[in-house]
Amino acid sequence: MTYPVTPAGPRPVGHRSRRAFVAVAVAALLTTAACAKDTADGAGNAAAYPTRTLQLMAPAAPGGGWDITARSIQKAITDDKLVDQSVEVFNVPGAAGTLGLAQLASKSNGDPHTLMVTGLVMVGGVVTNKSPVSLAQTTPIATVTAEQEVIVVPANSKYQTLTQLMDDAKANPSSINWGGGSAGGTDQILVGLLARAAGADPKQMKYVAYSGGGESKAALLAGDLTAAVSGQSEFRDLVASGMVRALAVSGSTGIDLGTGTPTRTIKEEGYDVELMNWRGVVAPPGIDDATKQAITDLIDRVHASESWKSIVAEQGWEDFYKSGDEAAAFFTSETERITAVLSEIGLG
Predict the structure, then answer these.
(1) CA pair distance 194, 271, nearest whole angstrom
(2) pLDDT value at position 213?
């Protein structure tokens, strides 16, 4: 080999180029590895997601509809072994779910391993609590269920029918203490719509807001409430045991709450009101399209699982599944609809 003589001394021809090539190759390998790690941490593909513990937030206290939904998703994933990682549920109660919403949007921004259960209650809560964060600032994944509301009174209540209750609510609003979920949520919306249909002033209804179904149950049984409103699954056990009496449900058909006889609908009781409480799942903001699809694929598998189908039937929920773009469009339309309803009944 010929060595050119230079002031720096002899050096093989091509030495610099080979060393540069090796450096570039090593850098490329390191970059590829880093990108692969980032992709895995961000969820990667459907087969790889999740790569660590999946956290499901119920933005309310234990015992309510969001909590039951989150734990039901956890059970379906675990029982049907839909992922290799563990699944945990945690609660962030307060302000119709908007405290949890704010936490998801800030602390969990870009983290695909934290998901949140949401629903119609939160849509109303954003309006009534003047929340600076809305569902538009999350990554929509899916709607999962719809559920009828139920109006109940203690077993020893003088009210045997919804008509008796609403007659008193119209004649003397202060005599009825209503209770249910967070202010501006489905429960209070139903009370407002029912008051309006009965010819009463929705603004005069005395409504006590609780952060979870467990709290409103306790208040009703303690005699602090005249009547309570919630999703039928939350009061089904108390109705079946005879501890409370169901006066009406809010859907299009009556349902059996464990007594052997279907509870009549609000419409069947003579009031033109029908309302379903839907629930869904969102991810934090800052999620790329591939990661969003991986999360959606998982929730698709939850919806198709035998465990989930059994849970839906057992809870008396209605299948209300929409995912991807369809779910995103629904979230947008519901925000517009509920905002208008709240304004109309004086809660907006």
Answers:
(1) 7
(2) 73
Pairing of β 227-231 and β 139-154 = antiparallel
Q: What is the pTM of this model?
A: 0.78
Tokens coding 94: 């307060």
Report mean pLDDT in 10-residue bins for the chain, 348 residues.
35 39 35 36 60 97 90 98 97 94 98 97 93 96 97 98 98 96 90 95 93 85 97 93 98 95 98 96 97 97 98 93 96 93 87
CA distance 188 to 208: 9
Q: Give the pLDDT confidence score for residue 345 in this predicted structure.
A: 87
Taking the C-alpha atoms of residue 124 and residue 343, their distance in angstroms, rounded to an integer, is 11
Strands 227-231 and 206-209: unpaired
The tokens describing 78, both together, are 């675990």
The angle, 0 to 180 degrees and rounded to 10, between the axes of the packed helices 120-128 and 186-197 is 80
Q: How many CB atoms lie within 10 A of CB 2?
A: 6
Q: What is the pLDDT of residue 47?
A: 53
Tell me the CA distances in angstroms from 116 to 31, 120, 141, 170, 316, one per residue in order: 33, 14, 10, 38, 22
Give φ, ψ of 305 to 5 degrees. -75, 150
β partners of residue 148: 276
Q: Is 95 left (phi over 0), alpha (psi -120 to 50) or beta?
A: left
- How far apart CA 167 and CA 276 sit, in angstroms, is 24
Can you give the pLDDT at residue 2?
A: 35
Query: Three-state SS string across 294-331, please?
Result: HHHHHHHHHHHCHHHHHHHHHHCCEEEEEECHHHHHHH
